[in-house]
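[Solved] Which block belongs to which protein?

Original post:
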Amino acid sequence: MKPKVVSAVFFLLSGYLLLGIAHIAALPPWEGFDETAHYSYLQQIADTWGFPRLEAARISKDVERYVRFAPIPYSSDPPFENNGGFTYKSFFEAPEETVVRGKEYIHNRPTKARHYAEGTSRNWQAQHPPLYYLLLSPVYAATRHLSWGAHLFILRFASYLFAWSALMLAFYSFFTAASGDLTHQEITRYHWGMLGVGIWPVLFPQWFPEMARLGNDSLCALIMSMVWLVTIRVLNTGQGARYSIILGVLLGLGCLTKALFVPITVGVVSFWVFRRLCLEGRKALQSVLSHTFLTCALIACIAGWWYMGNWLRHGIALGTFDMISLNNAGGMAHGLAKNLTVTALLRGHAAFVATFAWCGTWSLVRPPYVYLAPMVFTVVFAAAAYLSTLRRSQLLSMEWLPVWLVVPVLAGLSHHVLLQIALAGQGRGTGGWYLHLLVVPLGVAVGHGFGAWWNKSSFRTITGVLSLYAVLFSICISRLQLLLFSGLVFKSGTNKFYQFPDSLPSFLGLPDAISRLGVIAFPGLGFITWMCGGILVAIGLILTWRSTHALRTGPPYPPCPYG
């Protein structure tokens, strides 16, 4: 490995760890996507050792009690005032004794350790398989006697470590692969793939709100990284029983974490079946069938019981809340016949791309579209650069593997857009942020696309401008989020953009925001780790840029060697 590449990776990884901590420290309780439901699931499974059932699961009373004392995320649906609870704005405008009471409720230890008891609201996240919550149960049990602030901070950090470990494991796979007996061209490809994964959280900062929270996508990212590691290891050695067993175990664990791993499983298994049949012909048919059966049997043994239970209870194997609701409402065909329009279809898919680039947190407050447009263009630009390289490679080469993985996932998410239209007449609610769990294969794809075009000065200029804009966007949006959480800017009614008062306090409102945010979060820790993490990432980006110069002046970017 080239020293600059190794150094760049070290600084980037260290910076992302600190930036993840900074995000968690400044994030008020329950501001992460669906955290009230994820926490209730975790609490129920840890305290009662029983799996929540979608038709009966309820939000925890501890969570419902919180609403009476402290603010929760802005609602995106009427009545917009969180059903009588506090918004950040109304909380900090309340009498001083209300704010003091809220601070004490968040930062003081409870009189007795928390324990799950059923509330009144339905827990919609009971649709998920239980692995993520089982793994976090010991962390919950060890910290449930702490204050809300400390308790949620530790749980979120433990969850973020899954996602951060996915990046670590990806770099480990690159280091070990590139340290073998490879040609210069093969090592160059590994360098670009590693750099693509390395700059992912910079180009697409939605990575942090998606992964630095309570939510099973972080574990999915780690399992996906493991799948990628064993896959690239076996490319030159051939698919044997050992790999089939490992792959079956990993995919089974993924399916036991989130139903979104089902299309990922389809993509991985299809890739290997078609690759081997095309490369080895009919003589490999028996071997392919036996290895595929072994993999699928292990998946079924690990996760099949969950999906079979859904089928028996609801008639739908995936058992998602939306699918069950649509089934009870008459089915997809009935809903689409009534609600499908071209506008809703286009809007739903456009929103999917935009929310991959940036969606923020559960309050779903956005900047004006003119500032979001370059981030969306970055997504399109990176995708186009990668797709343009595929014409130089065979369909069954390793360079195509991200396509094999993402196409089934995109098909599933596109189906969810149709589902939302059939249910409500609009395609909203399908988050593009889910694609961040594919950070390793998609990051490698970004790296390959950039490597193929890096000799073009115009391409380097556009990439540099977009990267700089992404950094500035992240800095500005971090400030806006601090102002939002401290009630200095706000969300109002159906207007989903940041709303500003007539004037802000001095110094862009940051001193007042940090002071207020200390009531409900840990802004001091967040500011220090954000500054330190930002410096480390800046150093990593400089080293990354310099390392690309060495790669550019070497031999031309090679086509994929795995034909």
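(Second protein starts here: sequence line, then its structure tokens.)
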Amino acid sequence: MKRKNIVLIIACTAMAWMASAMERPNVILVMTDDQGYGDLGCLGNPILKTPEIDKLHAQSIRFTDFHVSPFCTPTRAALMTGNHPGYTGAFRTSSGRTMMHPDEKTVANLFADAGYATGMVGKWHLGDNAPHRPQDRGFQDVVWHRCGGIGQASDYWGNDYFDDTYERNGTFEAFEGYCTDVWFREAIRFVEKNRDKPFFLYLPLNAPHGPYRVPPEWEAPYKGNEQVANSAFYGMIANIDFNMGLFREKLEELGLAENTILIFMTDNGTSAGAKFRGLDSESVVGYNAGMRGKKSSVYDGGHHVPFFIYWPKGGLTGGKDIDTLAAHIDVLPTLADLCGIPVPEEYDLDGISLKPLLDGSEEPWGRKHHVVQYHGGAYGKALPPGPLAYSTVLTERWRLVNSDGQKLFDIQADPAQRTDVAAEHPEVVEQLRALYDPFWERVSPRLTPVRIDLGNPAEPKTVLCSQDWHMKTGNPPWNFGAIKKLPKVTGPWLVDVKRAGRYRMTLRQWPAEADKPVVAVRAKVGIAGQEKEVPVMADSKGVVIELDLPAGPTELVTWLYDRDGKAGGAYFTDVEWIGDV
């Protein structure tokens, strides 16, 4: 009798847990790429039509002073981890600095450990190789393009936004249709598949990032308008808007909309929604919501973005604005808090949950400032990164900008940041400068190289690309336009040999799927204190060099020499463990 009672108690407990799990909210986080605060109708754009996102805006709780990083990778790293990008190790878009330290835990790890189905569809831009791919970082179901944009160097050769080849759970697959349509189609597949269990879906779109390509019917309404800086850019946003409408209709049809936390945000300021005289200027054509600066600027136009959150069952509705200063690092703890998921200490978060603000608490929120820094400056002018440069210390009233000198702006009186008031308020400058120091103490020890694994059983063949060369200044060849010129430059890949043994390295100037010959007469590799040189055979499409490597961290450098003895690197190098020594 006792045993039956115990079994009954266990069964009832399990049923109660399952019922509770079924009530846990789903989460869908939609983030567009290079769309600024002013690139929406609901936020004042007088030309661009975004009725579906406008509708979501009208229904949602909106953070009106929400900040991200000024460009792609750092925002994604902060969003995934709840930590400052510099702390994660992923603080630039190339040069071997797009990958997070392996000890960083992600929001996908958190939700997967809590029993959620986790999915990612679209742009990752946090590493193309193990242990940095989305499937290595907590996502169970992934469909994504490599690199920072479709058609960039490590993306599948020939991709151009239409009928492309993307990676599904480690295998390349051909897809039909325009990229944004594909991502939303795959998002619908994921929610249909997981409709009977709680799920977390990360939907980071690559649009409207350049190159600016869209089916002509979306661009047509904006073509020829002198007030439109880039008609294709607007067309890409119009297509996103249309797909958002279809996606939300499907959530309603599936009965998921009521208990799904839906977030819409963007990853940095506009790239092409307006024309500017310079990185930090005001717009001269187009609409930028009255802000100064664009993508890559540490002025507000580079990092002040829209953030809407909608959850009917949780009471997050009604079109309310919250003007408290908030940031991308706050998203992970907020979602964990809303879903009742404890965050383990090992996550060591910089962000703070926004739930008290969403609940309408009148208690003071836990943070009154935020720091944005473009480590190394625009275009990699100063790598490795140093303190203070290209940074902004933000409060709800002030911006201390360190870009073209140190300047102070009263953002409430001067949202366009036209008038430097540092001389009038030296005490504010001193206070804000002091707030920067703990930030630098936190991130600077982690602004260290992150390595790519070789010989990782999770990735039998590691395909390295020149975008990940660890350069000290500037950018390596990171797109096919640069690579097609066969530039005479090379750089090191920082790698970690996970198991000692014999390795086969295949050197190429084009990815294997391009099926193009190597333009060189000699090839050489240097790794783990060894160098080996071989001749390049006529019409060779990949130069093979084998070496015995010890386990541990090292650098891999390649050279392909022309007849004049000038060398460029093997922009693509396959590395495969082939056996024990």
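Accepted answer:
You had them paired correctly. Confirming on the second one: Residues 6-21 have pLDDT under 50 and may be disordered.
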